[in-house]
DNA sequence: CTATTGGTACAGCCACATTTGAAGCGTAGG
DNA sequence: CCTACGCTTCAAATGTGGCTGTACCAATAG
């Protein structure tokens, strides 16, 4: 629900797509996602809040990576997806 | 892309989810999706434009059904989904 | 034919997300 | 310490999408 909202934005979609190829620091993401740094940071925060990406600081840099269950959770969030019945 | 935008709205998501259980006329959809008629029609138009649903008139009523490839196209629209490489 | 019901289309308002610009934090190095 | 760099966050301006109300079209019933 909120997941799909997070993904439906073009910037965030691109970020996730890039991250699906492997972790990246923000500076690398900047080269592949053509938006100002602070804007990118904002969208990264949205993705972080949605639990779709994880971060780790490495010296001065911050690495972003796709959360492990990201793709599965997105697929499950699609309408008509098989409901989880057994908790 | 525009697909995910269409699905990320709660009303449209619910509509698609209901339709995934089988076709419905608008009057039936109204009972399951608690929004004014106008609004429902508006969202149905968005889904129609996105090619996610199909319509057929039956007397006074209009039946909406999930487009056949709807789920597949949505899954393919997720970031990190396998790209179609061979055109 | 008219009346009624089901559904659609259009125009305007408003809220919310997005964007911008500037300031703030944390870390590395001189 | 002080500066530079990487990144984040805040506050205010902007815009786009969704909602409401109204008018409109299509088809059946009487």
Could you provide a short overview of the structure?
Chain A has helices spanning about 1-10, 10-20, 25-30, 35-50, 70-75; strands at about 25, 55-60, 60-65.
Structure overview:
The structure is a homodimer of 87-residue chains. Chain A is α+β, with helices and mostly antiparallel strands and 87 residues long. The first copy, chain A, has a single domain, classed as Winged helix-like DNA-binding domain superfamily/Winged helix DNA-binding domain (Arc Repressor Mutant, subunit A, Orthogonal Bundle), CATH 1.10.10. Chain A is 52% helix and 16% strand. Chain A has five helices and three strands, in the order ααβααββα. In chain A, strands 1-3-2 form a three-stranded antiparallel beta sheet. In chain A, a hairpin with a 2-residue loop joins strand 2 (53-58) and strand 3 (61-66). Chain A is globular, with a radius of gyration of 14 Å. The model of chain A has no long low-confidence stretch (mean pLDDT 90). Chain A binds a DNA duplex (30 and 30 nucleotides) through helix 4.
What is the CATH topology classification name of chain A? Answer: Arc Repressor Mutant, subunit A
User: What class would the helix/strand composition of chain A place it in?
Assistant: alpha+beta
- The portion of residues forming beta strands of chain A comes to 15-25%
Cα Rg of chain A: 14 Å
Largest interface: A-B, 21 and 20 residues
If you average the pLDDT of chain A, what whole number results?
Answer: 90
Spans where pLDDT lies below 50 across 5 or more residues of chain A? none
Under CATH at level 1, the class of chain A stands as: Mainly Alpha
Helix content of chain A: 40-55%
Quick one: CATH superfamily of chain A? Winged helix-like DNA-binding domain superfamily/Winged helix DNA-binding domain
Strand order of the largest sheet of chain A: 1-3-2
Total number of helices of chain A: 5
Major β-sheet annotation of chain A: 3 strands, antiparallel
The CATH architecture designation of chain A is Orthogonal Bundle
């Amino acid at each position: 629900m909120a997941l799909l909202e997070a993904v439906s934005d073009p910037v965030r979609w691109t970020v996730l797509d890039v991250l699906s190829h492997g972790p990246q620091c923000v500076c690398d993401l900047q080269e592949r996602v053509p938006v100002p740094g602070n804007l990118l940071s904002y969208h990264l925060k949205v993705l972080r809040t949605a639990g779709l990406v994880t971060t780790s600081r490495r010296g001065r840099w911050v690495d972003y990576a796709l959360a492990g269950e990201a793709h599965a959770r997105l697929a499950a969030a699609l309408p008509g997806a098989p409901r989880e019945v057994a908790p």
